[in-house]
Amino acid sequence: MAFIRFTERPAFRNPWAEFERIRQGLDELSRSYVEKGKGPNRANVYPALNIYEEADRLLITAELPGVKAADLDLSIEGETLTIQGKRDRRQNESGASYHRREIESGSFSRAIALPIKVETEQVGAKLTNGILTITLLKASAVTPRQIKVSAE
Amino acid sequence: MTDRELKIQEKKAAQPGDESTKNETFFAPHVDIYETDREVAVIADMPGVTVDGIELSLEDNILTLQGLRAPQQHTGRLILEEYESGHYLRRFTVAETIDQEKIEASLADGVLTVRLPKAVPAQPRKIEVKIG
Predict the structure, then answer these.
(1) What is d(CA B64, CA A22) in angstroms, rounded to the nearest whole number?
(2) CB contact under 8 A, A106 and B49
(3) Spatial distance between the Cα atoms of A94 and A131, rounded to a whole number of angstroms
(4) Is 90 exceeded by the pLDDT of residue A139?
(5) A121/chain B closest Cα distance in angstroms
(6) H helices of chain A, where?
(7) Is the pLDDT of residue A111 over 80?
């Protein structure tokens, strides 16, 4: 009777081989995601947002094609910013037959927790060419302050 | 139908004809296309594009919509990125005969509307044969 030491077993006999293969596959998959750069995080709620942090302010941008400024409603409460609005369906022309219909219309509402404290009194927002830009000034407590060093 | 909740639609990358030397991203804009008795209308979402950035052409029945965006001027640190921005490009083959002279396009709120009036079919003409 031949004894085979555990470590000398051929790979195909390894009951964990299949698990090992899956694990490697998953590793590869996650690595390829990382290597792809920090691609956009998938947002679940419309609209998708980008947030930029500058020294004294936060800039939040969103692509809102076809949304009119009058249909957009922004509110800020504490550290929660809410963006609400709707995109109206265009007037349907009578007798029109659609070849493609990829643009959706409807309402949206998104609330986001701001990463830092902001001045709720000074919020600027503008909508140009379908891009919404919200400017939030950081609260004075978190704005970097220059400290003078005096020589003696 | 405004009760419907808007969902995030994935942006699909578009391939310009040849590989560009610049590392720029092109996305295929979402479109609505409809046809009436008189015209074909194309509505495309191109947020961020100004009138200057739009290039339209209709050659050999290929309609090309291109929207170039000015480079982003945000300087800050990106702390959340849920969408990428880039140029827009999409091509369609138009089966109908279009009156090239009367094509109209307008841009509002980041939405491009192109109206392509159909060419009036030539009136059937009777040709008289003279006896000579």
Answers:
(1) 45
(2) no
(3) 31
(4) no
(5) 22
(6) 17-35
(7) yes
Residue A12 is predicted with a pLDDT of 56
Q: A46 and chain B: CB distance < 8 Å anywhere?
A: yes
Parallel, antiparallel, or unpaired: how do β-strands B104-108 and A57-63 relate? Answer: unpaired
Q: How far is CA A72 from the centre of its chain?
A: 20
Closest CA to A41 of B77, B80, B24: B80
Q: Each residue of A88-99: pLDDT tens digit?
A: 876 666 678 888
Q: How far apart are CA A31 and CA A82, in angstroms?
A: 35
Comparing alpha-carbon positions, the chain B residue that sits nearest to A115 is B79
CB atoms within 10 A of CB A78: 10
**Residue A135 in this model has a pLDDT that exceeds 70:** yes
Closest CA in chain B for residue A109: B5
CB B102, CB B117: distance < 8 Å: yes
Instruction: Report helix, strand or coil for A61.
Output: strand
- B48–A63 C-beta distance less than 8 A: yes
Q: Are A106 and A25 in contact (CB under 8 A)?
A: no
Looking at the partner chain, which of A90, A106, A129 has a beta carbon nearest the beta carbon of B2? A106
- Cβ-based contacts of A42 with chain B (< 8 Å): 8, 82
pLDDT averaged per 10 residues in sequence order, chain B, 132 residues? 74 77 86 90 93 91 91 80 90 87 91 91 77 81
Q: Quick one: CA dihedral B70, B76, B81, B82, positive or negative?
A: negative
Q: How far apart, in whole angstroms, are the C-alpha atoms of residue A135 and residue A33?
A: 31
Taking the Cβ of residue A95 and every Cβ of chain B, the question of whether any pair is shorter than 8 Å is answered with yes
Q: What is the pTM of this model?
A: 0.75
Q: How far is it, in rounded angstroms, from Cα A130 to Cα A61?
A: 10
